[in-house]
Each structure stands twice: as structure tokens, then as C-alpha cells.
Design brief:
This protein has six helices and six strands. With 174 residues, it is of the alpha+beta class. The strands form two sheets. Strands 1-2-3 form a three-stranded mixed β-sheet, with helices on one face. The chain has a three-stranded antiparallel β-sheet with strand order 4-5-6. A hairpin with a 5-residue loop joins strand 1 and strand 2. The longest helix is centred in the C-terminal third of the chain and has 24 residues. The radius of gyration is 19 Å and the shape is globular.
């Protein structure tokens, strides 16, 4: 439930939702947590999840592999199929392009040789593991979206666009 918040430098607070409430056996607790989540989405637009079930070791490994990838020389990164360098995209066409680089690691797909960087043999595994664990959280999150709307908990997953769950973007700002 959103009793705690993470304060931003601007003084705004991001609601913190204890995700364990969405996995509880008690329907009343799941509904209360889902209602808090809905209110947080309505008031702030997004939430901070705690107790989300993605092990810290999975997150740490993903970050370590991401840092390893983005530390490679530019020419080496450019050889990887999922890499996009700085200046490729812009959210607002009237402003300069983003100063970021990214690697797109699609979920559960057969990609051509060379898509993944040869220098980091565990990079793909770290992304795949994070995808698997994150998908589990996504499914539970969608149940939490359905509950306060009076819909069956499984409703949202039947209607979610699977593309949302297929791609992970690892982005590091320069």
C-alpha cells in the first residue's frame, strides 16, 4: 500500500507500493493494495515497487553486464545488432536528439549471429533472466490494475499487448 513515498529532489514524492500485497492469499489485501496502486497511478502517473520478487542479484547482474557493455569501445558496441548510439532518437523533433546510447535485447527470440556482443558471454543471459523475472512482476501488476476496476484478476493479461513484455531496453545516460 502507498503509505511511504520516495522523495525526489524537486520535493515531489513517488508513491511506494508494497508488491507483496498483490501476491497475498487474502483477496481483501490484494484489493486494498490494488486500490492503493490505482490511486498512485492516478495521482502521480507511476509507482515505486518494493517486494516485487525480482531478486537483487538479478538486478545487480543486469546492471553489471550493462555497465560492461557500455564500457566497450564505440566500434565494438556498434557491431552488436541491438546497439543504438547517441544522437539516434529525439522525443521532441524541435529539440536536439537524445544524448544516450542503448541496447535493445528482445525477449525470447532467435536473433542472428552477432546480435549479442561476443566480448560479454553473459550479457544475453542477464537480459533473459531479467525478462523472465520481470514478466512475472508484469503479470501480477496487471492483475492489480484489473482488481480496482471490478474485473477478474486475469482480465488484463489476456488483453495486454505481448510486445510490452518482449523487449527490454538498457539505457545509460552520458
Amino acid at each position: 500500500m502507498a503509505k511511504v513515498a520516495v522523495e525526489l529532489g524537486s520535493g515531489e514524492k513517488i508513491p511506494v507500493i508494497d508488491f507483496a500485497g498483490l501476491t497475498a492469499a487474502d483477496l481483501a489485501l490484494r484489493k486494498a493494495t490494488a486500490t492503493s496502486m490505482r490511486e498512485a497511478f492516478e495521482d502521480f502517473g507511476f509507482i515505486y515497487l518494493k517486494n516485487h520478487s525480482v531478486p537483487q542479484s538479478v538486478v545487480d547482474e543486469l546492471f553489471a553486464q550493462g555497465i560492461g557493455f557500455f564500457s566497450l569501445p564505440e566500434a565494438t558496441k556498434a557491431e552488436a545488432g541491438g546497439y543504438r548510439g547517441p544522437g539516434i532518437s529525439a522525443l521532441d523533433p524541435s529539440k536536439p536528439t537524445d544524448v544516450k546510447e542503448r541496447f535493445r535485447g528482445p525477449y525470447n527470440t532467435n536473433l542472428p549471429p552477432g546480435y549479442w556482443p561476443e566480448q560479454l558471454p553473459h550479457f544475453r543471459e542477464a537480459i533473459s533472466t531479467f525478462h523472465e523475472r520481470g514478466l512475472s512482476v508484469l503479470r501480477q501488476l496487471m492483475h492489480g490494475v484489473a482488481l480496482p476496476l471490478g474485473l477478474p484478476e486475469e482480465f488484463s493479461m489476456r488483453h495486454i499487448n505481448r510486445r510490452l513484455a518482449r523487449c527490454f531496453c538498457c539505457t545509460i545516460r552520458r
